[in-house]
Design goal:
Elements (H helix, E strand, L loop, with lengths): L3 E7 L8 E5 L13 E2 L3 H10 L2 E7 L4 E4 L2 E4 L34 H7 L3 H17 L7 H16 L1 H10 L5 H20 L3 H13 L9 H5 L6 H7 L2 H9 L6 H9 L20 H16 L10 H10 L7 H11 L7 E4 L4 E8 L2 E11 L5 E9 H5 L10 E4 L29
Antiparallel strand pairs: 1-4, 2-3, 2-4, 5-6, 7-8, 7-11, 8-9, 9-10
C-alpha cells in the first residue's frame, strides 16, 4: 500500500505535478481551493510564489514517475485520472474589464430579502408567459423578461446574498425555469464581483434567463432525459442553442443578449457546442453564463440525478480552470459565491447543523450559518444565526468554530425552504443578521 507523507518546500522549488496540501498562510487569504490541488503549469507556480513563501506537498513513500504536461515529475502522488482527464490548458492574457464598477453593499440581507421576496416569482411568471408564447408561435415580447432582469440586477448590486438565498430556498413549478433563473442569479453575482456595469449585467441576466428557450422546440423526452441520452439523441439535444437563437433573433433581442444564448455552452478549450469555439472567441458574458449554468447543473440537477454539494462543485470548478473555463473567471466566481455558497448545508465543528445564509470574500472559510439542529440532531425551537467570522475574532484557534463538513442536499431535518430570514416566520432572524 502506498503511504503519503507531507514535505515542506520553498515555492521556488515547486515542480509541475506536485500536490499542494497546505500553505504558509490561511487558505481564505488566497484564491486556491482549501482541499489542496495539483500544480499543472508554471502559471500555478507563479501564483503560489505571489502568495506564499513555502507550502506543504504530499510525497509518496514509493517513488514512481508521472507525466504532467511537458515534463516528468518523480515521487509525488497523482490521482487515478489526471486532472481535467488529461486535457490541455488554454492560456489567455489576464482578464481586463473596461472601466470596472465597484458595487457597494448598501442594505442588509434582511431588508433586501424582504424587498426582493416576490422578484423570482415575477421572473418565473415572465419566463412562463414567454415560453408559452414561443410554443404557441405567437408574437414574442421580451420586455417583461428584460424588466424583471433589471430588478434582479438592482437587487444583486445592492446586496448579492439576498437573491442567492431566495433562489436556493424557492420552490419552482418547472425545472427549466428554475435552472434559467438560478443560472441568472449565479451569473449576476459573478458579474458584480468582476465589476461589470449595470448595462452589461442586464445583458448577462437576460441572456441567462432566455438561454433555455430553444429546449421548447425539442422533443420532451430528450429534454427530460438530457443527462442520459444516446449519442444520437445528444446530437439532437445540442441543437437547442441554435434553435433558441433562431427563436429570439426575430424578436429583436440585442446582439449582446444573443451572444450569451449562443455561447453559454461553449467551453474554454473548444470542447463545447454548438460551434466548438474556445478561448478569446467566446464573448465574456457567455463565458460567465457558462460557468454559472454548469455550476447550477451540478448542485441542482433534474430529479433522479444526485446533486453535488456546492463546496464540492466549487472545488470541481477550480480543477477545470483554463481547461473548460477561463481561470480568471473561475477565481472571480469562487470569490463571489464563497467556498461555502449561500444555501450550502453544513455541520459545524461543535456538531450543530444548518445552512449558510451569507459569506464574506475576506473570510471565505467563516460564513454566516443559520443553525437548524443541535449536536444531537434535534431541531432548534428558536432561530440562531452564527457569524463565524465575528464569533472567532477574539477566540484562539482551539476555541474557534468552523465548518466541519458539507452535507448532501436533502439531509433529514435540514430544509432551508421552511425558514425565513426576513423575520416573518417563527425563525425571526432580523435582529440576528446585520451586515
Amino acid at each position: 500500500m502506498v503511504g503519503v507523507q507531507q514535505k515542506k518546500l520553498a515555492v521556488h522549488d515547486l515542480e509541475i505535478g506536485m500536490f499542494v496540501s497546505d500553505l504558509d498562510r490561511p487558505w481564505h487569504q488566497t484564491p486556491f481551493p482549501i482541499q489542496g490541488f495539483y500544480i499543472r503549469s508554471q502559471n500555478d507556480i507563479r501564483a503560489l510564489v505571489s502568495h506564499c513563501k513555502w507550502v506543504m506537498v504530499d510525497e509518496a513513500e514509493r517513488r514512481g514517475s508521472i507525466n504532467v504536461e511537458s515534463g516528468n515529475v518523480v515521487g509525488f502522488r497523482r490521482r487515478v485520472a489526471t486532472r481535467g482527464n488529461g486535457r490541455e490548458e488554454v492560456q489567455l492574457p489576464p482578464l481586463s474589464i473596461r472601466e470596472p464598477v465597484t458595487h457597494k453593499i448598501v442594505t442588509t440581507l434582511k431588508k433586501e430579502v424582504k424587498t426582493s421576496k416576490r422578484l423570482l416569482g415575477d421572473a418565473e411568471v415572465a419566463l412562463g408567459r414567454f415560453f408559452d408564447t414561443v410554443r404557441a408561435e405567437g408574437v414574442l415580447d421580451v420586455r417583461p423578461v428584460a424588466d424583471v432582469t433589471r430588478k434582479m440586477v438592482a437587487s444583486v448590486a445592492r446586496q448579492p446574498n439576498a437573491l442567492l438565498w431566495l433562489s436556493r430556498t424557492r420552490q419552482y413549478d418547472d425545472f427549466i425555469y428554475r435552472h434559467a433563473l438560478n443560472t441568472a442569479v449565479w451569473a449576476l453575482v459573478c458579474g458584480r464581483q468582476l465589476g461589470l456595469n449595470e448595462g452589461l449585467l442586464n445583458h448577462l441576466g437576460t441572456g441567462c434567463l432566455l438561454s433555455q428557450v430553444g429546449k421548447t422546440a425539442l422533443p420532451k423526452d430528450i429534454v427530460v432525459q438530457e443527462h442520459q441520452l444516446s449519442s444520437e439523441d445528444y446530437e439532437t439535444f445540442r441543437t437547442y442553442v441554435d434553435l433558441g437563437v433562431g427563436i429570439l433573433e426575430p424578436a429583436g433581442v440585442s446582439r449582446a443578449v444573443l451572444s450569451v444564448v449562443q455561447g453559454h455552452r461553449e467551453r474554454h478549450n473548444g470542447s463545447g457546442f454548438p460551434a466548438a469555439v474556445g478561448g478569446e472567441k467566446i464573448p465574456l458574458l457567455a463565458k460567465i453564463a457558462g460557468i454559472a449554468e454548469f455550476f447550477e447543473s451540478l448542485i441542482a440537477p433534474r430529479d433522479g440525478q444526485e446533486p453535488m454539494t456546492p463546496a464540492k462543485a466549487v472545488g470541481l470548478l477550480y480543477e477545470m480552470r483554463n481547461i473548460e473555463f477561463q481561470q480568471d473567471l473561475v477565481e472571480a466566481f469562487i470569490q463571489a459565491v464563497g467556498v461555502y455558497p449561500v444555501g450550502t448545508l453544513v455541520e459545524l465543528s461543535d456538531g450543530h447543523r444548518g445552512v449558510v445564509v451569507s459569506h464574506s470574500p475576506d473570510r471565505r472559510l467563516w460564513p454566516k450559518v443559520m443553525i437548524m439542529q443541535d449536536a444531537n440532531r434535534n431541531p432548534l425551537k428558536t432561530a440562531k444565526v452564527i457569524d463565524l467570522a465575528s464569533f472567532n475574532e477574539s477566540r484562539s484557534s482551539a476555541e474557534a468554530l468552523a465548518v466541519r463538513e458539507c452535507l448532501p442536499h436533502g439531509t433529514e431535518g435540514l430544509n432551508p425552504a421552511g425558514f425565513d430570514v426576513t423575520g416573518e416566520s417563527r425563525w425571526s432572524l432580523g435582529k440576528l443578521i446585520n451586515r
